[in-house]
Amino acid sequence: MKKGGIDLDIGVLDKFAQEIIKEAGERIRAAFSYDLIIETKSNANDLVTNIDRDTELFFIEKIKAFDVTHRILGEEGMGEKVESLEGVVWIIDPIDGTMNFVKQHRHFMISVGIFIEGKGKLGYIYDVMRDDLFYAIAGEGAWYNDKPLRKLTPVKLEEAVIGINASWVTPNKRVNHEKMIQLIRKVRGTRSYGSAAMEIAFVVSGKLDAYISMRLAPWDIAGGIIIASEVGAIASNLKGEPFDFLSQDTFIIGNPTVYQEIIANYIEQL
Amino acid sequence: MKKGGIDLDIGVLDKFAQEIIKEAGERIRAAFSYDLIIETKSNANDLVTNIDRDTELFFIEKIKAFDVTHRILGEEGMGEKVESLEGVVWIIDPIDGTMNFVKQHRHFMISVGIFIEGKGKLGYIYDVMRDDLFYAIAGEGAWYNDKPLRKLTPVKLEEAVIGINASWVTPNKRVNHEKMIQLIRKVRGTRSYGSAAMEIAFVVSGKLDAYISMRLAPWDIAGGIIIASEVGAIASNLKGEPFDFLSQDTFIIGNPTVYQEIIANYIEQL
């Protein structure tokens, strides 16, 4: 593929990305046994920090060996400073859902988005303990392991199940909580899993109909947003504008019908 | 075992219960393939109702063949009317988390509690899609598959992660939501999974520190409450009284330190 001066075979890049994501997952599962967690309970935060950093370093080392010009924007900040999306940029969260990692030993994800000249090309959300991969190649489709993900079908808001943290229906500085209360009364149900990447993976696979957050970082959503467009989910900040990938921003992803209605009738930013 | 005139080998009963729970799980997994759910999307509610009922009938048939004097109180109401806990009573929820069943194809549980002369003796929560069993024999311990579940260790409320639905922090008729808002601001995090049995299984295995609901039925909690006492979790209604097994009631289960503090400082029933 020739693209803005970058010569890349997307198939090769995809194969490489899947390999290192699965290898990173294997390393995390090995580093973290049930007994290890119990023994170091008082140091659980240190443990997760170490595994988080080790995993990010693992990605950096592998990616730089693959192509030294690729840059890495990671949650742990172990890569170089990334102030633009020029060239090839990997946006990586080595462990999304660290509290789940510590307490539940499940429900944490590796999230990876690969951008080429500012455009999302490859997106991955990997459920480490389930060994489950949600992924997409822009323009070619999305998959859940070896099965294609279907295009989302319309759902009425009153039949929707949405991911939202309970905090946002209480008085807060970011959004009119009275409208959020109306929203959760309108929908069929709400869920909260403690991992943005997990909730996004659930939206793109139709297990949730929308997910809303008042503050996310690029690495929380980079993988998911690329999968989203392949299945017909819409993702943006809460103003309906593109998410700002070089900062933090509000976020919503949803089935199109549900997305439109939530933005139009239930979101009032403060 | 001789108990109040009932002659029962608890080990035999446990083995039998595990066998039929796993067989019921296998039947559900077989009845419900990904494609089946998609094809019958418009009839998803009928589908789940049918599988729910079939599963309850399967339990009734098996249990009556095992011992015709055992009685069954099930969510689907296919057993006889149970107005007391005399003798041996099985309290069964064939699918706890039906919305998860329909939309997510995961995160639904079979919950079974076996009571002898009013006392909880055997408790089971089975995660059907993971093939994961949490269970306990009263006085003998609790297990997660083949591993013993450890006694819960103390946790501070500010480090706790609790299961609570977002509705309960909004104005409602059951509980002072202002105090619930204080609670969710105090704790480290909240989760909501859409299956009471799943959230209870997470509390008894230390994956959550408490779970609160304003209205549950006996079948939602019968399995879990028996596991709770083996790991040192406390379960009651929100007045701190024993849950009413012949009706619906409020419910809290938690790590003891967290349980006490929530009941004392954050629950004000209306």
From TrEMBL, chains A, B:
Pfam families: Inositol_P. Its cofactor is Mg(2+). Its EC number is 3.1.3.25. It comes from Lysinibacillus alkalisoli. It is an enzyme of class 3 (hydrolase). This is inositol-phosphate phosphatase. GO terms for biological process: inositol metabolic process; phosphatidylinositol phosphate biosynthetic process; signal transduction. Keywords: Hydrolase, Magnesium, Metal-binding. It comes from the Bacteria. Mg(2+) 1 binds at residues 75, 95-96. It catalyses: a myo-inositol phosphate + H2O = myo-inositol + phosphate. Mg(2+) 2 binds at residues 93, 220. GO terms for molecular function: inositol monophosphate 1-phosphatase activity; metal ion binding.
